[in-house]
Amino acid sequence: MSATRRLARFLKPYRHWAVLAPLLMMLEVAMDLMQPRMVQRIVDQGLARGDMPLVLHTALLMVGFAAIGAVGGTGCTVFSVLAAQGFGADLRSALFAKVQSLSFGNLDRLETGRLITRLTNDVTQVQELVMMMLRIMVRAPLLMVGSLVMAIFTSPTLALLFVVLIPLVLAVVIWLINKSHPLFSEVQRRLDALNTVMQENLAGVRVVKAFVREAHEIGRFRKANEQLMQQNITAAQVLALNMPLVMLILNSGVVAALWLGGVQVKAGSLQVGQIIAFTNYLTQTLFSIMMVSMLTMRLSRSEASAERIQEVFDSQPEVVNRPGALAEFAPRGRVAFENVTFSYNGADAEPVLKNVSFVAEPGQTVAILGSTGAGKSSLVHLIPRFYDVKEGRVTVDGIDVRDIDETALRRQISIALQESVLFSGTIRDNIRYGRPDAGDEEVIAAAKLAQAHDFIMSFPDGYDSMVGQRGVNLSGGQKQRIAIARALLMNPSVLILDDSTSSVDVETEARLQEALAAARRGRTNLIVAQRISTVLSADQILVLDNGQIVAQGPHARLMETSPIYREIYESQMER
What we know:
CATH superfamily of the largest domain: ABC transporter type 1, transmembrane domain
Number of helices: 19
CATH class of the largest domain: Mainly Alpha
Low-confidence stretches: none
Structural class: alpha/beta
Largest sheet: 6 strands, mixed
């Protein structure tokens, strides 16, 4: 089954409009088919006999038919737009919901730029196809069949021309469809590349300007833009052949009809009005085939978009609830890694964690230290089950996290990610993002713990101050403290700070660590850090190197037993 047909399920809620639109289009087509017959009547019966009342009466009938056809056509347009817009809105919403349901691993592969293209341009392509199918795909076949029947009825002899003309037009259409489909698939892929470059630059514009790389990025964008332009031109060149080839066949048919019809008029077996009517029906038939061909080529482009949309719908989350997963979960907070091995992108990839084992008891603060790329963030991302382990298991209170409902698990584990992501809205709304029903007192208490209250109150609107897109109007340290307050407001059993104080000054970080230690009340804290000062007071420090724990214990013991830890300490603290 084609991807377009599989997406047709989103049209079901609007099936009444989708049925009414073609019915109204049938009315318009019926009125259009009457017009050549009326012209024939005027020429052969009215003008030939000088019967002006008949001419006037027939002309009024033509106006009436045209008015009825206009009502049908307008109604078809209105209802087809309603059905197509509803279809597009539902499809876009379902696609966005599907993206939200996917796991980190799925999103890593699909990429942001490609997803943006699917949610915008690809959905628009399919939506426009639906609207065209409810109008042109109904009008063109009906007009084609109706005109063909009327042409045969008007002149069976001249109708033999269709035996030659229709196969020629169909041959052109089939050739163009086969030629255009791969071209339009490539157009969408190059649009992906353009959106990726644009998304990266808009997100990283400050880095671009800081390193004076505007010219380089303009060049990257120009290259992607020109590649898209060239592919569009190539596809358009193929489509451009459609009209000239079909018009050549059409005009050849008209010439042949006039010549053969003229011979029959001279012989007295055909009237002039019949030739005029037949020529009109011939033109309508071949134009209808041309409209079908154009729509079919549009279908080819939309099918490419539909396949890309369906790819997202067909993606299965890598992290799913097991049957009978624990729905209610109120842990004390004991976290244990048991011989955990983990790799990204499948089992064949190089492991980023190898045979990792440790235990974080309730109320403890466990710090994770190591060089960039050692696997620190990967380790903590396994606790809330952003990814699943390859070997071994991660447990909370002795229960494998894979046996716990995702929602129930993540309500008990709160994380401030390495990159502090804030959303447009007020500071208050950002802090209570995970608990929208939290009261102002709770929001303020969390902000005070995160050492964010003072700078928030320095703003004219305090907690009602608006946060720009991605927190553009806040410093890095301010964004990190709001993100920590957001995590604290969840009152979790396990709190994970994934290098979330890297932009905070040492003095503020020290106050933050004191506040967290005083307020932890049995909560397990896991802190990923680059700075040695962040981990000195931790109950247990894990030193990661190349995905393995090479040392663990409190600061004093590690200073005595671990050369790697001692080297890190001396390099940072004895400058």
